Amino acid sequence: MPVILVANPKGGVGKSTVATNIAGFLAWQGHAVALGDTDVQQSSRQWLAQRPPQLPPIRALEVDDGQVARVPKGVSHVVLDTPAGLHGKRLARLYGLADGIVVPLQPSLFDMQACHAFVQELHALAPARKSPPRLGLLGMRVRQGTLSQQQLQRFRQGLIEAAGGHLTWLGELRDTQHYVQLAARGLSLWDISPGQVEKDLQQWESLCKWLLG
Predict the structure, then answer these.
(1) Residue 50, exposed/middle/buried by CB under 10 A (0-12, 13-18, 19+)?
(2) Residue 127 has what pLDDT?
(3) What region holds the CobQ/CobB/MinD/ParA nucleotide binding domain (predicted)?
(4) 93 with 129: CB under 8 angstroms?
(5) Pick from 15, 190, 14: nearest CA to 4
(6) Cα–Cα distance between 38 and 162 in angstroms, integer?
(7) Using only C-alpha atoms, what is the Rg of the chain?
(8) What's the structural domain count of the chain?
C-alpha cells in the first residue's frame, strides 16, 4: 500500500494544496484513497468534509502525532498532509511510513534555506530504512520568466546534484486562484472539466508519472 507524505517544515508553502490534489488524482485513477492530516489546522480534513459525495471517494485517515491509528479496510493508497515545524521524532515516525515524499517549496530565500536543511534531515534518516522512500521536489506559486524562478532553478539543480540522484525534480506549479477556488469546494483539478484547468493539468504531468511509477 503506497504511502505518499507531503512535507516541508516551512509553513504556507502549499502542502495541503498538494496533498488534496494528489488524493484527487489517485481517486480518479480508480484507487481506494485515504487522506490523513497530521496538522493541527486540519486543512486537508476540512477540504475532505466539503467534497461532494458524487465524486470518487476519498476516505479520512485518523493520524495522531505521527501515528496512524488504523487504515480503513480496502484502502490501497494513503496520502499524508503534515504540519509546519516537522522535525525530530515526529518526522522520523512519518518518514518510516512513507514510500514517497513530496517536498513543496516556494521560490523565496527563506523557503529554499528551509528546504535545503529539511532535505539534509531526510537524507540523514535514510540509513534507518532498508528501502528509503523516493524524494521529490515541487516548485509552488512559480511565476514564469521572473528572477525568483531563475533562483529556484539554480537552487534545485544544486540540491539535486548534491543528493547524488536521490532527489527528483517534479516540476513547477503556477501561481493561480484555481487552487484556492477548488479547495473551498472540496475539489481537485481532476474533479472539473479539463478545459478549465488545462495549463495546471499539464504542470502536474511529471508529478503524476512519479506517483504512479
Answers:
(1) exposed
(2) 92
(3) 4-187
(4) no
(5) 15
(6) 30
(7) 16
(8) 1
**Residue reference for cell 515524499:** 101
Q: State the pLDDT confidence band at 6, using cuts at 50, 70 and 90.
A: very high
Rounded to an integer, the average pLDDT of 54-76 is: 82
User: What's the average model confidence in pLDDT over 91-95?
Assistant: 92
What are 58's strand-pairing partners? 33
Q: With residue 81 as reference, give the H or E element that holds it.
A: strand 77-81
Range of the domain at 170: 3-212
The CATH number linked to 207 is: 3.40.50.300
When comparing pLDDT for 115 and 42, which is higher?
Answer: 115
**Rounded to two decimals, what is the model's pTM?**
0.95
Q: How far apart are the first and last CA of the chain?
A: 13
Residues 44, 103: Cα–Cα separation, whole Å: 16
Work out the percent of the chain whose per-residue pLDDT is above 70: 97
Residues 2/5/44/152 CA torsion (nearest 10 deg): -130
pLDDT at 210: 97
Contact 181, 146 (CB under 8 A): no
Strands 63-64 and 67-68, by their bridges, are antiparallel
* Cα–Cα distance, 204 to 73 (Å, whole number): 29
The pLDDT of residue 67 is above 70: no
